[in-house]
Structure formats: C-alpha cells, structure tokens
Design a protein that fits this description.
binds NADP nicotinamide-adenine-dinucleotide phosphate; 10 helices; 259 residues; single chain; alpha/beta; seven-stranded parallel β-sheet; Rossmann fold
C-alpha cells in the first residue's frame, strides 16, 4: 500500500512550502485545497522533479460533508496516510459586532471542525496500525488572543488545547500528535486591515519557508508543541508573568491600527 503525507492548505504559504520540502525528502503527498489549478501544477512539478507520487483533491474544508468525502476517497483509493498535516485555515480582523457571521461559521468549520474530523478519522487508522504522526497548525494567538481577531484567535486556542490533550491520550499508541505555532508569517493569510495593525509593524514577519522547515522537523521527528522563532516564544510566555490588566493593554495596542 502506498504511503502518503496529507497536507491541507497546500496551495499557498506554509503548506505550499512544506509540500516542497517533503517532496524533496522523497515523501509521496496528498495535497488538499480549493485551488485545484495550483495543486495540479504542484503535482506535475513535484512528481517530475523528485519522482514522488502526488495526489490532489479540490476540497472546501469549511463544508464538513466534503471533509468526510475526502477521507472516504482516500480510503477507496487504498492510499495510506502515514502523516497528516492539518494546516488549512483562515482568519479575519474586525470588530466582533461588525464581522460577518457567515465567514465566522466557515472559519469554525475549517479551523476547528474539519481539523478535528480529519484528526479523529486518521488517528483511528493510525492507532490500528500503531504508527502515525499528526501535526496541527495553531498560532501565537493560541497563547495571546488579540482583540479584533476574536473568532480566529479562539479557533487557534482550540487547536492547541485539542492537540495537546489528544497527544497525551495517544501516548504509547504509536500515534504522535504535535502542534506548530507560528507567529506572523509573510503569506496571503493577511487581509489589508491586518497589515495595518501595530502587530504587523512591531514584528518582522517570518518567511513561510523558515516556518515550513520548523514544521517539517516537528512533523517528522518532534514531540509536543513548537512556537516558531525566539521572539514568538518569548511573547507566548508573557501572559504567564504579566498581570491581566497590563496584558489587555498590550493586546489592544498590538491589535490597533497604527497611527
Ligand atoms: N500567516 C500567518 O501569519 C500565520 C500565523 C499563525 C498561524 N497561521 C496558520 O497557518 C496556516 C497556513 O496559513 P498561511 O499563512 O500559509 O496562509 P495562506 O497562504 O492563506 O494558506 C492557507 C491555505 O489554506 C487553504 N484554505 C483556505 N480555506 C480553505 C478551505 N475552505 N478549504 C480548503 N482549504 C482552504 C488555502 O487554499 P485555497 O484558497 O486554495 O483553498 C491555502 O492553501 C493557517 O492555519 C493559519 O491560520 C498563519
């Protein structure tokens, strides 16, 4: 049975770079996103360049029925997922009273529901085989939820809590669950409004390739969680040693639009 690494959100940003790195290491890939043209181009290039098998799926993971169908298609084809990377996700910025409810429900379906479903379905198969690795992509906002990112930050808090709890449950089963927590990364993730915030100007964004390198290391060999970059690690620990009232001021300042 051919083994694959499945990457969601492989058409762009961190997922795209992880696909490049893993193909270069000779792993077969299942790539998932909505932009099928981009995935097909990657399929052609990566299989030609590295001699690996690449499958692609056009799936909208904000629709949980499609997520279930994705899992069933992979099973029907007889492909084995040895590693799962739940990377697809999107965010939004704005006053909670004004942001789009429809967008937020899609975000919860993508960032939480589909991530949880794929983790459950593939973890069950991996546990039966006593072997497998799952990496979920959370965020620095999992530690320091910023105002105006309310629903997005909460989805990423879910991802970290969920991944850490099941990592503990699955210890000793052969299934390893890890969590990648990037800070600000230069990708199409950021909306024009996000780019105007103090958080964006206060921190030099990391490059997607550098975050992908940390991700590949964590996926293949790591344990627990990885906050990528020393500055981000430092910021992630601030709430532990800073009074809530001061933390709230820092968070509001970071999330504000620069003057
Ligand atoms: N960039 C940052 O600063 C940052 C920081 C912390 C955490 N993260 C997290 O890192 C992960 C990757 O983000 P990125 O920065 O690489 O952003 P990106 O370049 O915008 O990539 C997002 C990926 O998710 C896919 N995607 C979006 N909606 C989807 C849907 N409904 N169904 C299936 N696929 C979908 C996109 O493909 P299609 O549009 O083709 O579907 C794309 O491949 C996300 O989980 C994000 O929350 C990013």
């Amino acid at each position: 049975m051919t083994e694959y690494i499945l990457i969601t959100g492989a058409s762009s940003g961190i997922g795209y770079e992880m696909a490049q790195l893993l193909a270069a290491k000779k792993f077969n890939l299942i790539l998932v996103a909505r932009s099928i043209d981009k995935l097909r181009k990657m399929q052609e290039e990566l299989s030609k360049k590295h001699g690996v098998e690449v499958q692609c799926f056009q799936t909208d993971l904000s629709d949980v029925k499609s997520t279930q169908e994705l899992y069933e298609s992979i099973k029907d084809n007889g492909w084995r997922v040895s590693h799962l990377v739940n990377n697809a996700g999107f965010g939004d910025y704005g006053s909670f009273l004004e942001t789009s409810l429809e967008k937020e429900l899609d975000m919860i379906n993508l960032n939480i529901s589909s991530l949880m479903m794929l983790t459950k379905l593939f973890a069950q198969d991996m546990a039966t085989r006593k072997s497998g690795r799952i990496m979920n992509v959370a965020s620095l906002l999992s530690f320091i939820p910023l105002p105006y990112y309310s629903v997005y930050a909460a989805t990423k808090t879910f991802v970290l809590a969920f991944s850490e709890t099941i990592a503990a449950e699955l210890e000793g089963t052969g299934v390893v669950v890890t969590t990648l927590c990037p800070g600000i990364v230069e990708t199409p993730f950021h909306t024009p409004d996000m780019r105007k915030t103090n958080a964006m100007s206060a921190n030099k964004p990391m490059q997607a390739i550098d975050v992908a390198e940390a991700g590949v290391k964590l996926l293949l060999h790591g344990r627990g969680k990885k906050v990528v970059g020393f500055n981000n690690w430092f910021i992630s620990n601030l709430p532990r040693v800073t009074p809530d009232s001061i933390m709230m001021k820092i968070k509001k300042n970071l999330a504000s639009v620069k003057a």
